[in-house]
Amino acid sequence: MRIFAATSRYVQGPGVLDALGKHSMVLGNKAFIITDADMARLLGDRVLASYQAADMMAMLEVFPGEVTHAAMAQLADKAKAAGSDLIVGLGGGKALDTAKGVALKLEAACVSVPTIASNDGPASGAIAVYDEHHIMQDILHLPRNPELVLVDSQVIANAPVRFLRAGIGDAISKKFEAEACHAAGAMTLLGTPASQIGLMAADACYKIIRQHAVEGLRATEENEVNNALEDLLEAVVLLSTVSFENGGLSLSHALARGFSYLERARGTLHGDHVAYGLVVQLIMEKRSTAFIQELLGFYQQISLPARLHDFGLTNPTADEVRSLAENSMVSPSAARFAPAVDADQLERAICQVEALTI
Ligand SMILES: [Zn+2]
């Protein structure tokens, strides 16, 4: 059996935020917009005006900041009491995942409006739930992907460049992860084998990043939108998600799970963890030194992290390396690799990455 999962409508471009109401009209009558305090201040009026222009009712709710079961339950009660039938997430990954969680509870339609492009979450049906200490507790799944994903490229270009860089980190691994998942005969998060479209999306995602990342990042540094940034965003926000949902994840994302337990890496971004995880995966794949060095040259060009040092782990201790290896094995993606890996092998691969000269 094969399943293809994706958002049913993806809208991207400078200024499209003002058309959010128009694109939402087919999905519901009353929007409940979940956002953080900063985005409420910066974009709240524009978003509410777009719903007003579309003759839709809408209310804005500032969420507490972490994606917890308690926060989702509380917001679901509020949205239900307000009679909302469309849940909109506006902001970073946490606001978007909280909105997805509320939509799941209410069985309502869901819209993602990312204001940064730091990971593959906005277009995905997956919801990462954390505890108050930012340790991942659960991954929940919407029965369908968010019905609408709307990306205002000017809003993304105005955000700090480190977020888009992390989004590239989260996306650049997808080709290698989908191919590894496929080669291992493992299942995607949909419970089906990697599909042809998943593998092709992952390959395209990688090519677009290699072609447009430098210029796209430069545009973001200047808060400008150009075609390179538009292509890059499509890879980072849309293709990255189509890749992992339909092509599968592997060791790179297993390593990202391990990072969440490293005290000294606290506050560093998921996509950066994945970028590092990809180097570990390539070592496990026994890729040639020349291949890995070429990729690391690209990492250096766009300032992607390639060492634990880059995450604040100056002189990583043996315990930290062991903890990263062991906690990476907690992720189901660690099993989407052939031949099977264990913590000892990962530990050795991490040490090899640390010893690489760029
Ligand atoms: Zn990811």
Q: How would you describe this protein?
A:
This is Glycerol dehydrogenase. It catalyses: glycerol + NAD(+) = dihydroxyacetone + NADH + H(+). Keywords: Metal-binding, NAD, Oxidoreductase, Zinc. The chain is an alpha/beta fold and 358 residues long. The protein folds into two domains: 9-158, 3-Layer(aba) Sandwich (Rossmann fold); 161-355, Dehydroquinate synthase-like, alpha domain. The protein is 52% helix and 13% strand. It has helices at residues 20-24, 37-53, 69-81, 93-106, 153-158, 161-172, 174-183, 196-221, 227-247, 251-259, 270-284, 289-302, 318-328, 343-355; strands at 9-13, 30-35, 57-62, 86-91, 109-114, 126-130, 136-141, 148-152. The strands form two sheets. The protein has a six-stranded parallel sheet, with helices on both faces. A two-stranded antiparallel sheet has the order 6-7. Helix 7 packs antiparallel against helix 8, helix 7 packs parallel to helix 9 (227-247) and helix 10 (251-259) packs across helix 11 (270-284). The N and C termini lie far apart (43 Å). The relative contact order is 0.12. Zinc ion binds next to helix 11. Residues 119-120, 170, 253, 270, 274 line the site of zinc ion.
Bound molecules: zinc ion
Name the assembly state.
Answer: single chain
Number of helical segments with 4 or more residues: 14
CATH secondary-structure class of the largest domain: Mainly Alpha
Characterize the overall form: globular
Low-confidence stretches: none
The helical percent reads 40-55%
Strand order of the largest sheet: 1-8-5-4-2-3
List keywords for this structure.
358 residues; alpha/beta; Dehydroquinate synthase-like, alpha domain; 2 domains; two-stranded antiparallel ribbon; 14 helices; 8 strands; binds zinc ion; EC 1.1.1.6; glycerol dehydrogenase (NAD+) activity; metal-binding
